[in-house]
Amino acid sequence: MSDPRIQGWAEVLVRYSVNVEPGQMVAIQGDVAAEPLLRALYQETLRAGGVPVMLPILPGLRRDLFVLGSDAQLETLLPTERFMREQADITIQVMAERNTRDLTGIDPSRQATWSRARSGLFQSFMEREANGKLRWTLTLYPTDAYAQDAGMSTDAYAEFVYAACKLNEADPVAAWRAVGAKQQKLVDWLTGKKEIHVIGPDTDLKVGVEGRVWENCDGTKNFPDGEIFTGPVEDAVNGHIRFSFPVVAYGREITDIWLKFVDGVVTDASAASEEAFLIQTLDTDPGARRLGEFAFGTNFDIQDFSKNILFDEKIGGTIHMACGSGYPGSGSKNVSAIHWDMICDLRQGGKVFVDGELFMENGTYTKG
User: Fold this and answer.
1) Which of 180, 222, 232, 333 is the most buried (most CB within 10 A)?
2) What is the fold of 5-164?
């Protein structure tokens, strides 16, 4: 895909999202289908004085590992993985899958074994990010597979990606800084509050957030961005919630997920499809049944579900929450090998109260 906006994309990621400085070690990892953007990122990192380390991903390798590898091979941590999580100053990751269902049919226990072996690495990653030793960003390069999932032509999907990333703006960095300023008003209002109460279709959930930090996501990590999130109090989640959109993960599509929480723990769970996989994922480890994240989507340039969490969790007027590991910077203490985001659409018939005050109604924010 040859598009002049790719160079601008690389410039925004390198100069704004992670702000590469001279001498910093920059790990650039991505699927080879994103070669134009990967090459532009490599070149822009050099211009910024950083030391780029390119880590390309060939299609199908993960499936080969799950099909052919022994448990010992699944559990082996590669030097490249350690470099990404424990040594690099900056990581830039580019998703560009050619087949989003490549892992369909893989035994979930094999995936759980792989994930559990990397729990410590994930914690190191989040701790380094929280203490300022690591900066990171994640983006998505349009491919035929993503376009098919979204029900679009590849060209239309590419335009959807560029618009969501604000790469059509005359000054994308200024546009993202404006997003940050607008979101900060919501963060300021939420700071110091104790409880979120979500009401919607088959949903009545209370989430404790006392003493936790609200994070303002404005294109410096996920790209595109557009959310504010916190780490819920681990034992202060009660009620039930039905998630509006499917979760697409590990080559599977889990639909109509319903969870019940008692004192922070998922005590009951169901799904219309792939229910056994859902339950097995929640049983990965004790932390997988607790929330590590609660978030509000604020990107109103994204309105339609595309079956990709990088975009879908940002849909303005939705909430999402993640079972599993939380980000230490948000105050979360939950530890798990998984971090699984699920989305609840509140744009039709939903309300959110914060310490008894109406904060959102039918997808529209009433505060901030």
Assistant:
1) 232
2) Thermophilic metalloprotease-like (3.40.1830)
Domain-wise residue ranges, the chain: 5-164, 172-365
Query: What confidence tens digit (pLDDT) does each residue in 104-158 have?
Result: 889 989 998 999 999 999 889 989 998 999 999 999 999 999 999 999 999 999 9
pLDDT tens figures, 60-70:
999 999 999 99
Cβ neighbours of residue 47 closer than 8 Å, sequence gap 6 or more = none
SS3 letters across the chain: CCCCHHHHHHHHHHHHHCCCCCCCEEEEEEEHHHHHHHHHHHHHHHHCCCEEEEEEECCCHHHHHHHHCCHHHHHCCCHHHHHHHHHCCEEEEEECCCCCCCCCCCCHHHHHHHHHHCHHHHHHHHHHHHCCCCEEEEEECCCHHHHHHHCCCHHHHHHHHHHHCCCCCCCHHHHHHHHHHHHHHHHHHHCCCCEEEEEECCEEEEEECCCCCCEEECCCCEECCCEEEECCCCCCEEEEEECCCCEEECCEEECCCEEEEECCEEEEEECCCCHHHHHHHHCCCHHHHCEEEEEEECECCCCCCCCCHHHHCCECCEEEEEEECCCHHHCCCCCCCCEEEEEEECCCCCEEEECCEEEEECCEECCC
Residue with tokens 């590898």: 69
From 233, 220, 238, select the one nearest 292 (Cα to Cα).
233
**Start-to-end CA span in the chain (Å):** 40
Does 2 score more than 80 pLDDT? no
Asked if the peptide bond before residue 224 counts as cis, ω within 30 degrees of 0, the response is yes
